């Protein structure tokens, strides 16, 4: 199985240890597979080797999951306690950036 991320290619083998990001966290992989049995097996194999693995049945669902993940990261970085959050979720539309009043 081959997996490409950023500017390097990594071959996953049985004796591999989990690759780490530059800050020491395990890398995250998104498995996009519409066959549930195959997807579950791939996710289990990645997790067994120490990866953070998620599953999406379609490319559109994968894109939604990735956007939600990065908006969550962004919220953690820019929001402060006691102040109204800057990023608001608009149901059915997406996200909006509103400065506090």
From TrEMBL:
UniProt-listed Pfam families: Trans_reg_C
Biological process per Gene Ontology, one example term: regulation of DNA-templated transcription
Molecular function as annotated in GO: DNA binding
Keywords from the UniProt entry: DNA-binding
Keyword DNA-binding listed: yes
Domain OmpR/PhoB-type: start-end pairs: 61-97
Protein name: Transcriptional regulator
């Amino acid at each position: 199985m081959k997996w490409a991320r950023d500017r390097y290619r990594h071959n996953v083998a049985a004796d591999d240890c989990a690759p780490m990001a530059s800050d020491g966290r395990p890398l995250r992989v998104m498995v996009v597979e519409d066959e549930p049995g195959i997807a579950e097996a791939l996710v289990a194999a990645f997790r067994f080797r120490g990866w953070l693995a998620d599953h999406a049945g379609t490319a559109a669902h994968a894109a939604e999951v990735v956007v939600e993940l990065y908006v969550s990261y962004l919220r953690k970085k820019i929001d402060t306690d006691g102040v109204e959050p800057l990023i608001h979720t608009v149901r059915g539309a997406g996200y909006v950036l509103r400065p506090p009043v």
